[in-house]
Each structure stands twice: as structure tokens, then as C-alpha cells.
Amino acid sequence: MVLTFKDRTALVTGAGRGIGKAIAETLAAAGVNVICVSKSESSCGAVAEGIRSRGGKATARAVDVADGAAVAEAAAELLAEHEVIDILVNNAGITRDGLMLRMSDGDWQEVIQTNLSSCFYWIKGITRPMTRRRWGRVVNISSVVGLMGNPGQINYSASKAGIFGLTKSLAKELASRSVTCNAVAPGFIETDMTAGLDEDVSREITSRIPLKRLGKPEDIAGMVAYLCSEEAAYVTGQVFTVDGGLVM
Ligand code: NAP
User: Fold this and answer.
1) Rounded to an integer, what distance in angstroms lies between the CA atom of residue 98 and that of residue 171?
2) Tens digit of pLDDT for each residue in 147-198?
């Protein structure tokens, strides 16, 4: 099936690397105009440049998604430039792992702000024109760790589980305006975030995955593109696990 996008503009956070980069490139390849957001100018700039060099439409904007005031300012400026941003993909995320007893307040706050509060900030900044136009897509990137828990990641798993509640409540709030809101929960995906896993841990994880491999960023991008398309108009408030069968 070929997915349909009718002259849409998307904002993808964390688009500088890994999963966000694959999402930005997949949407752009389908004809979507993509605003690539990341923390550093160089990473989102390079992704947007790459998309343009292949004939796609993309711009870049460095924004610290953990900073509510910075997101509000960027969202207002971007809406002034683009009139409407039809698709919002909240993908930016970090880990600051450590066992609970040793976890600092700073590591707790930073992960909650970057992974969860950022979704709230962008949704608040971007979705009002979607509701007026009676069309919109919000996709929040969570994690299987939000479903299963993981020792050493109480901050990360809490932020990712929080995304489920946010997604379902927002889906109910915006459904009457034909704006859908869904979450995708990736399993273990080959990106910079998992590059630090030592070989034994990686082998052990792979042995528990029925499809016997880690995922690729494109495995997640395909699901996100579907959820952003016309074809997904009747899908809202759901969590889609894309993890090679790890969680069943
Ligand atoms: P990644 O390779 O580490 O890339 C993270 C991206 O997020 C980068 O572009 C980074 O910007 C951006 N970012 C981080 N903090 C930011 C901030 N404060 N403001 C703006 N941008 C920020 O991560 P990934 O593996 O692709 O993960 C993407 C998402 O999927 C995350 O939410 C992650 O939790 C989730 N996830 C990943 C996995 C996995 O196995 N990889 C599994 C489940 C869920 P810069 O490029 O400027 O540094």
C-alpha cells in the first residue's frame, strides 16, 4: 500500500540522529515538508540538508525540547512561517541510567523534562491550528521499557510510561477535531542510544527477541509514517509496540 500525504508539513524532534532521522527521511521521501528539530544545529541541519539534496523539502531548527519557554518561542515562530504544522512527532529522548538509590535529582529531572515534558510543550505549542483545520497527527515515541520496566532506568521508564497516559488523554481531547494521537513503543533499536551496550548484554537481549535481531531505525519510521498518513485516520489513542516480538 502506498501511503497518502496531502501537502503536509511535519515537525520531528530528535531528527538529528537515529530513529528521528529515519522518521524525517521517510516522511520527506513521501512528499512531506519536514521541520527537523534537534539539540544541536549541526545534526538537524545535516539531516535537512541531506533531504534537500535528494529533492525533498526540509528545514532545520535547533531547540532544547526540555526548555518549555524555548519550545513555546520556537513553536510560535514556526507556526508564523508555516501557517499550520499538520504532523507532530515527539521523538527526542535521552537516558541517564543508574540504580534508584544512587540516582541524582538532576538525572531524574533531566530525563522527565526531555522525554515527557517536551511532549506537553510541543503539543501545547503546535496543535491549536490542527484543531481549527480539523486534521492532525501526533505521534509520541515511547519505549517497551515504559511497559516492562528495567532496572537502572526508573527515570526513563517513568517518562516513557507517562507518554502512554498523555497520548490516550490527548487522543480523547482532540478526537472531535479529527486530530489523532498515538504512541509507538520501540524495542531495542540500533542507534547511538544503544551503541554503548556491551557485547554480552546485546547478545543476551537478542536471544530474548523472537525475531532474533535488534531493530533498525527504519523499522520504527515505517510505523510512524503509517500513523501520520491519511490511511490512519481511524486510529487513535493506541500504543504500537515495534520490538521484534519482545513484548507479547
Ligand atoms: P539518539 O540516537 O540518541 O538520538 C536522540 C536525538 O534526540 C538526537 O537527535 C538529539 O539531538 C535529540 N535530543 C536529545 N535531547 C534533546 C533535547 N534536549 N532537545 C532537543 N533534541 C534532543 O536516540 P534514538 O535511539 O534515535 O532514540 C529516539 C527516541 O526513541 C527516544 O525518545 C528514545 O527514548 C526512543 N527509543 C529508543 C530506543 C533504542 O533502542 N534506540 C528504544 C526505545 C525507545 P542531537 O542530535 O542534537 O544530539
Assistant:
1) 33
2) 999 999 999 999 999 999 999 999 999 999 999 999 999 999 999 999 988 8
CATH code, 137: 3.40.50.720
Smallest CA separation from ligand 1 atom 41, residue? 189
Residue type, 41: E
Task: Calculate what percentage of the chain has a pLDDT beyond 70.
Answer: 100
Tell me, in angstroms, the distance from the centre of ligand 1 to residue 173's CA: 27
Q: Is the CB of 17 under 6 A from ligand 1?
A: yes
CA angle 60, 92, 52 (to 5 degrees): 25
Mutate to test the pocket of ligand 1, among 12, 13, 19 (most ligand atoms within 8 A of CB): 19
Q: Which domain holds residue 181?
A: 9-240
Contact predicate 114/38, CB 8 Å: no
Say what the pTM is: 0.99
Query: 176 CA distance to ligand 1 centroid (A)?
Result: 31
Distance CA(241)–CA(187), nearest Å, equals 7
Question: Quick one: which atom of ligand 1 is closest to the CA of 65?
Answer: 19
For the record, the C-alpha cell of 77 comes out as: 515562530
| Atom nearest to 220 CA in ligand 1 | 30
Q: Structural domain tally of the chain?
A: 1
